[in-house]
Amino acid sequence: MTLAGLTPHRLVQALDRFNAAHPWDHNAHYHRWILRQLPRRFGSALDVGSGTGDLARLLATRADEVRGVDSDPAITAQARALTPEPTAASFAVADALTDLPAGPHDVITCVATLHHLPFTEALDTFREHMAPGGILVVVGLYRPRTVTDHLLGAGAVLPNAALGWLKNRGRAAAPPTSMTARTRPADMAFPDIAAEAHTVLPGARLRRRLFWRYTLTWRRP
C-alpha cells in the first residue's frame, strides 16, 4: 500500500515504525546551534543534565573548564568513560537545585532537563550561579496546547523521518547511546514557559522550534 492509500491513523503508525527503525537524537540536533550562541572562548561552563556528556565535550573545545552534572549515577559514569583524557570536561552526580558547582559560570546550558525540575526555582538557581555577562542557553520540551503548537508538531513529522533516514544512511539502527534514558513528557505549555521565564529572566528570548522543542537564551546583566 502506498502512503497515499493510508488512512491518517495508519500513516501515523507507519511513521512511528519508521522512526523507531531510524532513531536519532533530537537534543543533540541542537548542540551546534547552542555553540553558535556562545563566545569563541570563555572560562567556566556548567551543563545541567549532562547525560552521556556529548554537549559538555563540545563546550570543552571552547572553555577553560566544563562541569557536567546529572542526577543519574549510571549515566554520569558512562559520561566519564566516554570522555578522553586530558580534557576540560568533568562530570559529577548532583542535584540541579541544591548541589550545583558554585561558579560563577560564564555559560550554563540545560538540554531536555528543565521540565524535570520546578521551573521557576531552577531558573532562579541558574541565574544565581552565573557570572555577570554570562549566557544561559536552554533547549526544552513543552506541552502542545495552541494551534501553533500543533501545526508546528505536524510540520515536524516528515522532516523527522527524513533526518532519521539521512543520519542512519537509510539503514535500520539501534537508538544512540544518548537516547537510552527516557524523558518524561513536559507538562508546561509554551505560553506559560515564556511568561514565567520573562518574570525570572527579564529580556530572555524564547522560541518554539522544530522537533517538539523550544529554546531560551538569556545574558545576565
From TrEMBL:
CDD domains: AdoMet_MTases (cd02440). Gene3D superfamilies: Vaccinia Virus protein VP39. Residues 46-134 form the Methyltransferase domain. One of its GO terms (molecular function) is methyltransferase activity. Keywords: Transferase. One of its GO terms (biological process) is antibiotic biosynthetic process. Pfam families: Methyltransf_25 (PF13649). PANTHER family: TRANS-ACONITATE 2-METHYLTRANSFERASE-RELATED (PTHR43861). This is Methyltransferase domain-containing protein.
